[in-house]
Backbone:
């Protein structure tokens, strides 16, 4: 039995006036998602426990089969994927290159700065501010800052994608307990503005009509977590395909193999075909394969409805289409699930913790529920709206083994 979990990041949405009350999922052409829903079991799952921030770290840890309550921030989860082995007294911050205008966050991705440009800026930051902490290159605007001060783990932070248009001094790091530590790191962010604006990378970007990466933004900090061991918990081998360092980091902590895929950009232009081709190859020697696609989430953050619909249709036609056709050639028995990690609604451009739809199809199912199509409205399915996210894989295993 092979298990495949398709994570369509941020795919869930709300009814939109411009779609006559439909969501992007409902509007998109998704015959393969509909096949899985019609011939399988469906429902809504809660991937973000009450009281937790609806970040991709929380939601994807749930989907990968572990209770996210032990997480200590997003930064440390990304550390392994950029080659950083955190010490016991280290705190890792996610570092975004952002664009600001009139002291307000204008673009939380710095116009999707390239990884090559980001690497040059990271090297320059280490030379200029390396006495405060260490800077590490990630992918595009997603990078890392590490400081050996456990007290900074308690600073209150704000993800920049949640406050686009917000004043940088209103949403910077805060702390009643350690105000001086917050002040030091806030000053680092402010000092980065003039330094980055004068850097040749940004001067070239401006000359080319692109937004400069004219500030660093620190958030999502935490110390090294202990999440669990996937092979030991499930007695199955597993692997992850993703273009996002966060997912690679989570996978590393729980002993899932990370399959590097050429062209996996974590953006609209990601190579869908390579992702499914590498996944099918990986399933030759892994029991469980996670395939994560970031594009719907990026479209949600940008409020880009056409790109969100296109991403959903690419996931359906390219990834699910090939999987349903070719999985039987690898193993006659397989179980496949498709779901978002969290909603990223077009109208609000950020994550919510609302339950998300999921559908599970298995060669072991001979009594599908009554749901006919994949959408956010699947409370009439077998699971209703009660499934807890970190139990999804366990349910897939029960279904595969015909256990109630």
Residues:
């Amino acid at each position: 039995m092979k298990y495949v979990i398709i994570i369509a990041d941020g795919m869930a949405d709300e009814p939109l006036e411009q779609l006559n009350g439909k969501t992007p999922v409902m509007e998109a052409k998704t015959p393969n998602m509909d096949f899985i829903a019609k011939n399988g079991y469906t429902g809504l799952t809660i991937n973000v426990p009450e009281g937790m921030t609806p970040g991709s770290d929380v939601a994807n840890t749930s989907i990968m089969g572990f209770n996210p309550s032990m997480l200590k921030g997003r930064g440390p989860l990304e550390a392994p994927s950029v080659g950083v082995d955190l010490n016991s007294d280290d705190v890792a911050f996610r570092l975004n290159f952002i664009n600001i205008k009139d002291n307000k966050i204008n673009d939380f991705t710095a116009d999707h700065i390239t990884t090559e440009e980001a690497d040059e800026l990271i090297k320059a930051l280490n030379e200029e501010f390396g006495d405060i902490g260490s800077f590490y290159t990630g992918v595009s605007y997603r990078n890392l800052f590490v400081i050996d001060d456990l007290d900074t783990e308690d600073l209150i932070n704000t993800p920049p994608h949640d406050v686009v248009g917000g004043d940088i001094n209103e949403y910077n790091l805060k702390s009643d307990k350690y105000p001086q530590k917050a002040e030091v790191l806030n000053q680092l962010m402010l000092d980065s503005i003039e330094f980055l604006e004068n850097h040749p990378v940004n001067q070239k970007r401006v000359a080319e009509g692109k937004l400069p990466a004219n500030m660093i933004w620190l958030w999502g900090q935490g110390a090294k977590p202990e999440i669990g061991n996937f092979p030991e918990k499930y007695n199955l081998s597993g692997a992850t395909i993703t273009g996002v360092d966060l997912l690679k980091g989570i996978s590393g902590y729980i002993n899932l193999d990370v399959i590097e895929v050429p062209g996996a950009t974590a953006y609209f232009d990601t190579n869908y075909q390579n992702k499914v081709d590498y996944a099918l190859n990986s399933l030759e020697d892994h029991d469980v394969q996670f395939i994560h696609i970031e594009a719907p989430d990026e479209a949600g953050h940008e409020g880009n409805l056409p790109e969100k619909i296109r991403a959903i249709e690419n996931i359906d036609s390219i990834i699910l289409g090939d999987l349903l056709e070719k999985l039987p050639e690898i193993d006659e028995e397989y179980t496949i699930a498709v779901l978002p990690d969290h909603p990223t609604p077009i109208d609000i451009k950020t994550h919510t913790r609302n339950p998300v739809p999921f559908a599970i199809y298995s060669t072991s199912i001979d009594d599908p529920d009554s749901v006919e199509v994949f959408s956010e409205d699947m409370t009439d399915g077998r699971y209703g709206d009660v499934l807890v996210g970190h139990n999804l894989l366990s349910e897939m295993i029960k279904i595969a083994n015909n256990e109630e």
Remarks:
- The longest strand covers residues 91-101.
- The two ends are 18 Å apart (CA to CA).
- Residues 274 and 401 are 31 Å apart (CA to CA).
- The mean pLDDT is 96.
